[in-house]
Predict the 3D structure of the following.
Amino acid sequence: MKLLEGKVALVTGATRGIGKGIVHKLAASGANVAFTYASSAASAKEIETELKVYGVEAKAYQSNAADYEASEQLIANVVESFGRIDIIVNNAGITRDGLLMRMNEAQWDEVMNTNLKSVFNITKAAQRTLLKQRSGSIINISSVVGIRGNAGQSNYAASKAGIIGFTKSIAQELGSRNIRCNAIAPGFISTEMTAELGEDTVNEWLKSVPLGRAGTPEDVANAVLFLGSDLSTYVSGQTLNVCGAMLT
Ligand code: NAP
C-alpha cells in the first residue's frame, strides 16, 4: 500500500516549480490531488492529466489564494468533489523584490496578501472540515529568508516569518483535535522564481550552501511527503529547513 493511499491533498500554486514537484510526489504516493493556479490554465490542464497517470483523482482549480471569498469557495468545491481534505499545502507565493527605499505600498501588499493572507484564507476556510474529520496535516511553505532576513526582500521575509508564527499558533489551537500544522523553509531551490535572479546573486547564494548545489522541487516535495503522511503523526508546530545546511 502506498504511503498516502486514500488521502486527499490540496496544494495551492502548483502549475510549476515547487508546487508542481509536490503534486507529482503526492499523487505518486497514492493521494488524490486538488491543486490551484492563478492564471496558467494550460499548464494546470497538462498537470491534471499527468497526475491521473498515477491512477489517482486530480483536479485543477483557478483560485486566487489571496482572495478570502474565493478561498472559501475553493474549499467548498474541493470537499464537494473529493469528500474530505487530509493534507493542505499552502505553497502559492510571489516575490516583488526591492530595497525598502524603493519599495512601494503595492509591492508590500501584493506579497503579504499572496504569501501570508493566503495561508490564513485557506486554513480558515478548511478548518471546519478538518475539525469534523478530527484529523489533518497543514503544511505551509515558508523560506529560509523568513528566518534570517534578506536585504531587498523585506516584504517577502516578513510574509515568510509571519507564516512561521501562524503555523506554531495553529498547531497549538488545533492539536487537541489531531490536526497538525508545520512549516517548511526551503533554501535556494531551482524554479522559475529563482531563474529571475542574476548570475552573481545565484553564485552568492550557492556559496552559502554547504551541500554545494541548489535544491530541487523534489527535495522539498520529499519533506512534504513526510509531513503529510502518518510517518510524522507526532510532529507539529515545527519548521523543517530544506536548505542544504545553509546557516539560518
Ligand atoms: P513559482 O515557480 O513562481 O510558482 C508559483 C506558483 O504559485 C505558480 O503555480 C503560480 O500560479 C502560483 N500562484 C502565484 N500567485 C498565486 C495566487 N495568488 N493564487 C494561487 N496561486 C498563485 O514559485 P516557486 O519557486 O515554485 O515557489 C513556491 C513556494 O515556495 C513559494 O511560496 C515560494 O515563496 C517558496 N519558496 C521558494 C524558494 C525558491 O528558491 N524557489 C525558496 C523558498 C521558498 P500561476 O502559474 O497560475 O501564476
Q: What stands out?
A: Residues 12-19, 36-40, 64-66, 91-94, 114, 141, 143, 186, 188-189, 191-194 surround NAP (CB under 6 Å). The beta strands are 8-11, 32-37, 58-62, 87-90, 136-141, 179-186, 239-242. The longest strand covers residues 179-186.
